[in-house]
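Bit of a strange request maybe. I'm writing a small parser for structure token strings and I need a real example to test against, not something I typed by hand. Could someone generate the tokens for this chain?
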Amino acid sequence: MEKYENLIKRYDKGNMLKLLRNFPQQFREAIKLSNNFNLEKMKEKTYENIFIQGMGGSGISGFLARDLLGPLTKLPIVVNNSYELPGFVGKSTLAFFVSYSGNTEETLACFKKARRRNASIVCVSSNGKLARMCKNCIKIPPGNPPRTMLAFLSVPILAIASRLKILKKSIKLDTVPTFLEKNAKEVESLGQNLAIKLKNKIPVIYASDSYASVALRFHAQLAENAGTFSHWNVLPEANHNEIVGFKPKENFLAFVFLRSRDESMRMRKRFEFTKKIVSNSYIEVWLKGKTHAERVFYGIWLGDFASYYLALFNKKDPSSIENIVRLKTVLSR
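Reply from user aminoacidic:
Good idea to test on real output. This should exercise your parser:
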């Protein structure tokens, strides 16, 4: 850790490292907050589908929920990152609207439409218009970059779905914070090592479709934290098109394979084949944990640390998001 101290002091102006290391405790607080939320009126209703709306650091919660809840419910789950509300959303929809600031314009636009259609709505926000407009709003701590508040933004969706008895079996969330705490040093160290391997490279991230949210989150964090462009996809889909375009001599690419011990034999064969043809050099990251939730959040936390340390190597403040700030200025005119 000592060799990184000067980089941290010089570039981490927003003290993001402290926020990253606090993730297990944030997760524990998010569980408590979600379990205390009043759902009595919502328990009386019957649901036919689940809809999750959010953008950017708030929107990743929807993809994460889809990965974790999809195998546990018969209800279709749709994640939306748009101004437009899908036509199926209505009285039988359990709808989540997630916006850390509470002022995300795409999320507000869809919220208003869903409210007019009498969907059963739960909002997750720290403040802003969404928190004022939504009667069922889970208020989370304000004042931090949305991407550092992932537990507060995602756990409410998972916990509420479990409490509403729409899952075939409850999702195990209580084990996650302790599991992460036990592996904290390992996760940060692996993140540092991964950052070293990705320096001056364009990362290409592959995961099985059960862990799509981990790959997407890593891709997003590399952009926002490290200022690094990357590409991501899932197997088996990537095997039906992208493998035709691989050129091993393109050594500016760094292939990262997110692996898990719960892979099927068919998926394992796909990974092994893909590794052989992409490049002479690749990186495997094994997602540790006994449950699906533990493996997902282990992978996300590791990727967060990797993007943080890569930011330092790139001489960038990991909290800075200059182009997004510029866009918001343009849109406000």
